[in-house]
Amino acid sequence: MTEPRGELAFIHWIRSQLPSADPRVTIGPGDDMAELRLPDGGRVLVATDTILDGTHFDARRDPLPDIGWKALAENLSDIAAMAAVPVGAVGTLALPRDFTMAQGQDLFTGLKRCADEFDCPWVGGDITSWDQRLAITVTVLAHAERPVRRSGARAGHCVCVTGRLGGSLLGRHLTFRPRLAEARRLAEAAPLAAMIDLSDGLSTDIGHLCRESGVGVCLEAARVPVSDDAVQLAARDGRTPLDHALNDGEDFELLFAVAESDVARVLVLDLGVEVTVIGRFVPAAEGCTLVDSQGHALDLKPGGYEHWR
Ligand SMILES: [Mg+2]
Question: What are the residue ranges in the chain where pLDDT is below 50?
Answer without folding.
Answer: 1
